[in-house]
């Protein structure tokens, strides 16, 4: 066959020819090997995209998605301050009219009423304009932070309320028609609020006192039931004796006051001497001209 003749002829051309043929064969094999390798590399590149020359293989590890964890707001604890102590929490009593109890079967909340933010709390402001009579008192309260060296707290709201000269509370029982001796003020840059009111009467079973609540803001106060402190102020014993001597203005208070003591009072009796001292306002003035009083209210912020 013809192709066999070509093979025979190639084997009969001598050593030089055979060496040349062998060289061409070897060269051809190297070329085929190179093309085979190049094709494999092209295939790899087409499947894997760009790769690093280090040729290290890594497997992807999913990154966990963080979940939100609620962090409880720490409750402030009081530390000693220079010239102030933490006021103790006291009961609001049965007549707060702050939305925490009911009167005549309905919830009484004067804090949500228009006009409750006022300095002079002697007049009623809801259904009547009756003015509570009695010995005039201008009371300035300074709200301070016992955890910051008694620094004043501006922008806090203070709700003050107390009984009238007969021992009755407005919006309740025999005083239900009235809304006097209740009001809210917001502390200024000095942490102070000032109320014009009267000296409270003494009724059976309690030392003469005033109630107050402190709120972190006015909006919290008029929203109701967000007080950061509910407590009371004790009236000074000597001043009670002086004021109640006017039996025409304060009928029955002198005899009732004679039957109570600060140490046996179920509110003030278990407080420390430092707490009672801070809860007792300092008074200047006279019954005839009116009194100016002041007290510090210490809260932990």
Structural category: alpha+beta
Q: Which architecture of the largest domain per CATH?
A: Sandwich
Shape: globular
Tell me the number of helical segments per DSSP (H or I, 4 or more residues long): 6
- Helicity, as a percent range: 10-25%
Could you give a short account of the major beta sheet?
A: 5 strands, mixed
Uncertain runs are: 1-81
Strand runs, count: 11
CATH class category of the largest domain: Mainly Beta
Radius of gyration: 45 Å
Characteristics:
four-stranded antiparallel β-sheet; Protocatechuate 3,4-Dioxygenase, subunit A; five-stranded mixed β-sheet; dioxygenase; Intradiol_dOase_core; oxidoreductase; about 300 residues; 2 domains; 11 strands; alpha+beta; Intradiol_dOase_C; 6 helices; disordered N terminus
How do you describe this structure in short?
The chain is of the alpha+beta class. The chain has six helices and eleven strands. The radius of gyration is 45 Å and the shape is globular.
Protein described:
The protein is of the alpha+beta class. The chain has two domains: 2-48; 98-299, Sandwich (Protocatechuate 3,4-Dioxygenase, subunit A), CATH 2.60.130. The chain is built from six helices and eleven strands. The protein has helices at residues 2-10, 15-48, 218-223, 237-244, 253-257, 273-279; strands at 98-103, 106-109, 136-145, 151-152, 157-161, 182-186, 192-198, 209-215, 227-234, 282-286, 290-299. The strands form three sheets. Strands 3, 4, 7, 10 and 11 form a five-stranded mixed β-sheet that branches. It is globular. Mean pLDDT is 80; it is low at 1-81. GO terms for molecular function: dioxygenase activity. Residues 99-109 have a biased composition (Polar residues). This is Intradiol ring-cleavage dioxygenase. Residues 53-80 have a biased composition (Low complexity). Pfam families: Dioxygenase_C (PF00775).
């Amino acid at each position: 066959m013809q192709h066999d003749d070509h093979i025979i002829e190639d084997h009969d051309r001598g050593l030089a020819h055979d060496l040349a043929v062998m060289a061409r064969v070897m060269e051809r094999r190297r070329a085929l090997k190179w093309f085979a390798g190049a094709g494999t590399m092209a295939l790899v590149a087409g499947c894997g995209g760009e790769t690093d020359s280090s040729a290290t293989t890594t497997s992807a590890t999913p990154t966990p998605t963080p979940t939100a964890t609620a962090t409880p707001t720490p409750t402030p604890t009081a530390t000693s301050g220079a010239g102030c102590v933490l006021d103790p929490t006291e009961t609001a009593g049965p007549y707060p009219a702050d939305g925490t109890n009911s009167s005549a079967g309905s919830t009484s909340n004067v804090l949500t009423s228009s006009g409750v933010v006022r300095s002079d709390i002697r007049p009623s402001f809801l259904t009547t304009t009756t003015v509570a009579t009695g010995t005039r008192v201008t009371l300035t309260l300074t709200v301070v932070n016992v955890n910051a060296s008694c620094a004043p707290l501006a922008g806090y709201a203070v709700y003050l309320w107390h009984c009238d000269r007969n021992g009755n509370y407005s919006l309740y029982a025999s005083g239900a028609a009235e809304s006097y001796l209740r009001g809210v003020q917001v502390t200024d840059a000095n942490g102070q609020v000032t109320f014009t009111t009267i000296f409270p009467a003494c009724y059976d079973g309690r030392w003469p006192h005033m109630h107050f609540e402190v709120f972190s803001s006015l909006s919290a106060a008029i929203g109701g039931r967000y007080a950061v402190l509910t407590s009371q102020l004790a009236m000074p014993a000597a001043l009670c004796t002086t004021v109640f001597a006017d039996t025409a203005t304060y009928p029955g208070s002198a005899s009732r006051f004679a039957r109570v003591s600060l140490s046996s009072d179920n509110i003030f009796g278990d407080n420390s001497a430092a707490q009672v001292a801070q809860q007792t306002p300092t008074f200047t003035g006279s019954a005839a001209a009116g009194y100016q009083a002041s007290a510090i209210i210490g809260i932990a912020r």
